[in-house]
Amino acid sequence: MQATKLPIFFEQVNQRLSAAPNEVRRLFHGRGRQFEGLEQLTCDWVQGQLIVAIFKQVDEPFIEALKQGLVTLSESELWQQKQGQAMVVQYRFAEGAPSEVLLGELDHQPIVEESGLKYQLNIGRNQNFGLFLDMRFGRDWVKDNAKHKNVLNLFAYTCGFSVAAIAGGADQVVNVDMSKGSLAKGRENHKLNGHNINQVKFLGYDIFRSWGKIKKMGRYDLIVIDPPSFQKGSFALTKDYKRILRKLPDLLAEGGEVIACVNSPQVTSQFLIDGMKEEAPELNFIERLDNPPEFDDIDPEASLKVLRFQ
User: How far is CA 208 from CA 27, 54, 201, 244, in A?
Assistant: First the structure.
């Protein structure tokens, strides 16, 4: 990356921060390759905290120029207007993704809002802080289309789709994820929003060994599939996604819908469309949901792909 390109970064951050609602937002997405020389840099606004992430080793002049620019931003009228409290640089390329607090005191577990719903994040201790911001429109779609539905949320993580579904009037959501810790955070996210936990199930299972338990709580009117691209020992995208798709006809209610997601730049939308034709031909491709504009990518097929089937 190039320190000479950092004025473009700060111009974009200032523009987007100025326009940002009082919600969590991506302010700069270098990984969309729209800004030459800044491809490994992102910046998120966490309602008072600015989180800058660097994904590839850079030289010292780049780091110093970045820090100086952040100091200048912290002294601006905009920073005061937005009630900025902390600035953090996270070195995602380094082991453990260490964070350096440049300003203020980092709130490691802030409660933020997105589309009127509350989520608790976990910043600075993990690579991911508990809510994938590029999935905002996907959660919005679920919220708008979940009324009176029985929803299955596979690879639920911290249950963002589940929170959106219950907020949208779903009768029940079944969350499945191997990580019981992530599901516990999902339970807290539901509580933050005042939801009836009796409507939500949390299954800390290996999906591939638990189809019987999952099927027992169906049939489902809506199934959301949002797996990691790779999870050591449990999931490899190109090998295992089809194993899920072939189960869908036995799980779906008549007229049921599927939101299938993939966020690997190595595969395109056609990977899911062809996989569904092969494994569950009863289901038809309807549309690809848009990504939020702040996540624009020079190649849309390299970014998040959220596909709807019925």
Answer: 37, 35, 18, 8
At 265 the pLDDT is 87
Place of tokens 């979940």: 146
Predicted TM-score of the model (pTM): 0.91
Counts for the chain of helices (H) and strands (E), in that order: 10, 16
- Copy the structure tokens of residue 266: 């190595």
- Please work out, in degrees rounded to the nearest 5, the angle formed at the alpha carbon of residue 286 by the alpha carbons of 258 and 254: 50
- Dig out the tokens for 209 from the structure: 């060994």
Using a 10 angstrom Cβ sphere, with 0-12 exposed, 13-18 middle and 19 or more buried, the burial of residue 142 is: buried
Residue 34 neighbours by CB under 8 Å, 6+ apart: 296, 297, 298
Give the ranges where the chain is alpha helix by DSSP (H): 6-19, 60-74, 77-81, 136-145, 160-167, 180-192, 211-216, 237-245, 248-251, 269-279
Q: Which of 31-40, 157-166, 188-197 has the lowest mean pLDDT?
A: 31-40
| Pair of tokens at residue 24 | 């969590």
The residues with which 41 forms a beta bridge, in sequence order, are: 54
* CATH code linked to domain 3-120: 3.30.750.80
Assigned CATH class of 133-309: alpha beta
Other Cβ atoms closer than 10 A to 173: 30
Query: What ranges do the domains of the chain cover?
Result: 3-120, 133-309
Contact (Cβ atoms closer than 8 angstroms) between residue 90 and residue 54: yes
- The one-character DSSP state at 32 is G
**Would strands 172-176 and 200-203 be described as parallel, antiparallel, or unpaired?**
parallel
| pLDDT exceeds 90 at position 70 | yes
Rg (CA), the chain: 20
DSSP class of 264: -
Q: Which residues contact 80 (CB under 8 A, 6 or more apart)?
A: none
Q: Are 159 and 119 in contact (CB under 8 A)?
A: no
Tell me the per-residue pLDDT of 6-51, one tens digit each, with 9 for 90 and over: 999 999 999 999 999 899 999 999 999 989 999 999 999 998 999 9
